[in-house]
Amino acid sequence: xxxxxxxxxxxxxxxxxxxxxxxxxxxxxxxxxxxxxxxxxxxxxxxxxxxxxxxxxxxxxxxxxxxxxxxxxxxxxxxxxxxxxxxxxxxxxxxxxxxxxxxxxxxxxxxxxxxxxxxxxxxxxxxxxxxxxxxxxxxxxxxxxxxxxxxxxxxxxxxxxxxxxxxxxxxxxxxxxxxxxxxxxxxxxxxxxxxxxxxxxxxxxxxxxxxxxxxxxxxxxxxxxxxxxxxxxxxxxxxxxxxxxxxxxxxxxxxxxxxxxxxxxxxxxxxxxxxxxxx
Length: 279
Description:
By secondary structure, the protein is of the alpha+beta class. The chain folds into 2 domains: 1-78 and 206-274, D-Maltodextrin-Binding Protein, domain 2; 81-202, D-Maltodextrin-Binding Protein, domain 2 (3-Layer(aba) Sandwich). It has helices at 2-13, 28-35, 49-53, 66-69, 94-102, 118-129, 142-150, 161-169, 218-231, 235-243, 253-274; strands at residues 45-48, 70-79, 81-86, 108-112, 134-138, 156-160, 173-178, 206-213, 247-248. The strands form 2 sheets. A 5-stranded mixed β-sheet has the order 5-4-6-3-7, sandwiched between helices. Strand 4 (108-112), helix 6 and strand 5 form a beta-alpha-beta unit. Helix 1 (2-13) packs across helix 9 (218-231). The longest helix is centred in the last third of the chain and has 22 residues, at 253-274.
């Protein structure tokens, strides 16, 4: 998603956009890198709902403040997450997964791309609401968790749609529910979380945005925002995002922190209720 955005905006602005991967600690390493750069308009970051609304609040000492450390640039798009299990284990709906959770010591073993990820919080909230015993198994990134899931080292995982869909269509994973208010055309036979028998409040798709370091010149932010919105009408860009199951979002720079504030109001109380904040 980031590379597609960088190629399109760079072409429209007539300057290269170089993508640097800074993996680790569920985005904290990348955020610290951005915070360490000058706020001169040379650096920006694509950032997920997780890092903007969940990750800082699962630490008793916040590693950063998304509402104070960043300047919003643009929303890129949203994509639902889907709860999946390995194929061939006899689990085809949420009721089947409940039986698994209640039949073994430690409950359901579910994976996530890391503590504080939307997948972690959504699945934890689901097991809590359904009163299932469960054990969270964090991985360093989604790919590592997916490998463990297909190897049946864990029993369930919530994945972003474009990660899950190819494996579902290949018959390697079974989707149980999409955490969204409506079904996805990418996997039209998969029920929403409410249709599957889960809490409707968990119909919260993930989103990705672009931010810059606080203090970045407004004219740079406006140029990036304008280019992002122009990409919305680029058929190649739109098609590539559609294939990834991303719904594009036109926006103004202020919308980024607005979306963050909206979701923080939901996730932070849930984090506090479930006692997920640790050192």
